[in-house]
Amino acid sequence: MTHWVRFRNEAGVGFGRLEGDRIAVCKGDMFASPADTGDSVPLASVKLLTPTVPTKMLALWNNFRALAEKLNQAIPPEPLYLLKAPNSFLAPGEVIRKPASYDGKVVYEGELGIVIGKRCSAVSEADAPGFIFGYTCINDVTAAEIIQKDPTFAQWVRSKSFDTFGVFGPAVVTGLDPAKLSVKLVLNGQERQNYPVSDMIFGPAAIVSRISQDMTLEPGDVICCGTSVGVGSMKPGSDVAVTIDGIGTLANRYE
Questions:
Q1: Structure confidence by residue, pLDDT tens digits, 126-167
Q2: Residue 249's CB: how many other CB atoms inside 10 A?
Q3: Which listed residue, of 25, 63, 118, 205, carries a Cα 20 to 30 Å from 102's Cα?
């Protein structure tokens, strides 16, 4: 199991393996035989960035049985997903900003994220795991009242693509069995979500295979696997943290 991170310090932007309280600095391409430089830096001396720079982030809806049952939603025959715009991407420790143009409810959604490791197009479900580099934590922030604001058009992309609404990190972790993971979200010190990834309707291999039939996935692209019960609103001044054991904690403030 390896924790890959990107960071910025006085030397610029770099990446490497998180090993305890230090980062073993690497060179080359994180997704294609990265090489050790022999250097390491203290974690406390750097600013963590988003662990990848995706060409796109996709987010699933209605992908957990418990939430589908609570909302009285039918089990979908295929993954239902949307795009979150790149301007929304936000690193751990940075501030989620309340949109100036919107006064409604803003909600958190703690999720598991799939990170693609190599170009992926029209792959089978059996082959899909070979295209998954690892997993990360997601907070799929949503301006909930925009989705159905216009009765003629559901505005999923707009509601989820405000600046700072695509939060992910702190690391991409390889060598995990996602079926054994749980997603926890804590808001202002109180646990609001705690659900098993094994409750997913479509697992990671099925998700990657199905989406790759529609579009080419590139190294570093992120797929948010959807959320489960416990979604709720945040007020400005809130601290929100998504934790997945084995990956880490994605902590941010909402202002």
A1: 999 999 999 999 999 999 999 999 999 999 999 999 999 999
A2: 15
A3: 63
Angle at 161 between CA 160 and CA 166, to 5 degrees: 80
Which regions of the chain carry the CATH code 3.90.850.10?
Answer: 50-254
Q: Indicate if the alpha-carbon torsion angle 58, 64, 67, 68 is positive or negative.
A: positive
Q: What is the mean pLDDT of the chain?
A: 97
Per CATH, which fold does 1-49 belong to? SH3 type barrels. (2.30.30)
Residue span(s) of the chain under CATH 2.30.30.370 come to: 1-49
Looking up tokens 């170009």 gives 119
Q: How far is CA 110 from CA 15, 62, 70, 116, 179, in A?
A: 25, 14, 17, 19, 16
Residue owning tokens 């707009």 = 158
CATH classification of 50-254 is 3.90.850.10, yes or no?
yes
Q: CA-CA distance, 46 to 9, in Å (whole number)? A: 5
Picking from 44, 54, 46, 55, the residue whose alpha carbon sits closest to that of residue 14 is: 46
Which tokens go with 102? 């919107």
Q: How many residues does the chain have?
A: 255
Can you list the residues of the chain whose pLDDT is less than 70?
A: none
Predicted TM-score (pTM) of the model is 0.97
What whole-number distance in Å separates Cα of residue 166 and Cα of residue 3? 20
The CB-based long-range contact list for 174-178 (8 Å cut-off, 24+ gap) reads 174/1, 174/2, 174/4, 174/133, 174/134, 175/1, 175/2, 175/134, 176/1, 176/134, 176/135, 176/246, 176/247, 178/112, 178/135, 178/203, 178/204
